[in-house]
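To the wet lab folks,

You asked to see what we're planning to order before we commit. Fair enough. Below is the target structure as tokens, and below that is the sequence we designed to fit it. If anything looks off to you, flag it before the synthesis order goes out.
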């Protein structure tokens, strides 16, 4: 029976080496059983028959070089360490975070960085990143978060946020591409970080309740209970009581290619401001990834004690009720993520519906 393995070590001065194969122990081979010209090279893939060596231990016989059981990533298009490139294929990378951020496709162009999400030539697609999340167990991820919330033993509000169209989180994050997308580094899925949810809630409440007066907000009991606040002459430093959890898709979302299409590149890139915008400029499409999540994202808020606010502009209301209300309003009227000015990132709401009637579910 023919076995396959990879030469792990070879001692040229002693004429023997070892082959790593499917068994736990490496198998010994002697140069006299190497049926190739030249010297064995560490890292080469070989075929061999299993025989019996000294002291009855397994030994490789009829050792011959063979092709690796995969197609290595080509050096020209994937700028990763050689030892990594030679042991994996794209099909083996099932985490989309790794595929996007660690296996960036490189195609040298004079005027660009060279890293591409999508590459076309006269309408023909020569390279396209494949966003495939079909292997992710989304119910298990949601169940794990629910178990975490259960262990916290805190009062909880759950909201289902369904985007009315596409959503972009993390468009401007550092990336070898000109654009980026927030993906969970373990699950490899798009999600809404807790910090983003907390940020838009704080921004909306600051605007709608306190008229952008942050000094007044930081003195308000409800605002400090929710978000915390620094030490002042009359108040001690305080930690926010509300926990905002990362929001995960409730089922497999669809990742799609979209474009930013700046028409006046010379105008935008002129540091002296002497080049006017004009119709003679050539549009330069910039490709980015967006999220379509028809089933929505599960937003979870918890608080150690859902106290009633005693004073201030929101007196008489419970902490979680305040947060849930203003987070809903922010998602409906302000949106979340990038490019909200052109309609991305808004919650699905019917025409003429108030924020309270938007497409949300609260437990």
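Sequence we intend to order:
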């Amino acid at each position: 029976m023919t076995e396959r393995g990879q030469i792990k070590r070879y001692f040229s001065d002693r004429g023997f080496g070892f082959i790593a194969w499917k068994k736990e122990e490496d198998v010994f081979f002697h140069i006299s059983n190497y049926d190739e010209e030249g010297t064995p090279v560490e890292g080469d893939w070989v075929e061999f028959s299993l025989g019996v060596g000294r002291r009855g231990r397994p030994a490789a016989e009829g050792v011959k070089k063979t092709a690796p059981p995969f197609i290595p990533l080509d050096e020209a298009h994937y700028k990763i360490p050689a030892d990594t490139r030679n042991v994996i294929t794209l099909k083996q990378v099932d985490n989309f975070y790794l595929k996007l951020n660690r296996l960036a496709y490189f195609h040298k162009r004079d005027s660009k960085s060279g890293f591409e999400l999508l590459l076309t030539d006269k309408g023909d697609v020569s390279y396209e990143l494949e966003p495939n999340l079909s292997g992710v167990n989304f119910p298990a991820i949601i169940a794990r978060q629910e178990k975490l919330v259960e262990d916290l033993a805190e009062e909880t509000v759950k909201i289902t946020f369904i985007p009315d169209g596409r959503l972009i989180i993390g468009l401007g994050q550092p990336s070898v591409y000109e654009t980026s997308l927030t993906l969970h580094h373990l699950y490899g899925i798009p999600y809404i970080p807790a910090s983003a949810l907390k940020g838009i809630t704080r921004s909306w409440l600051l605007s709608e309740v306190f008229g952008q007066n942050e000094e007044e907000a930081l003195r308000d009991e409800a605002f400090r209970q929710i978000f915390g606040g620094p030490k002042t002459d009359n108040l001690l430093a305080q930690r926010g009581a509300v926990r905002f959890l990362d929001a995960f898709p409730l089922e497999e979302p669809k990742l799609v290619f979209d474009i930013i299409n700046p028409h006046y590149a010379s105008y935008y890139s002129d540091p002296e401001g002497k080049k006017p915008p004009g119709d003679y400029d050539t549009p330069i499409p910039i490709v980015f990834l967006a999220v379509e999540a028809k089933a929505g994202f599960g937003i979870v808020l918890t608080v150690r004690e859902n106290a009633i606010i005693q004073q201030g502009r929101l007196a008489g209301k419970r902490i979680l009720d305040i947060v849930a209300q203003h987070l809903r309003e922010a998602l409906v009227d302000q949106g979340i993520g990038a490019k909200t000015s052109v309609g991305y990132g808004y919650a699905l709401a019917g025409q003429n519906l108030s924020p309270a009637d938007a497409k949300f579910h609260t437990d």
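Structural context that might help your review: The helical segments are 82-85, 96-101, 138-152, 194-208, 214-217, 221-227, 265-268, 319-333. The first strand starts at residue 2 and ends at 11.

Thanks,
Computational group
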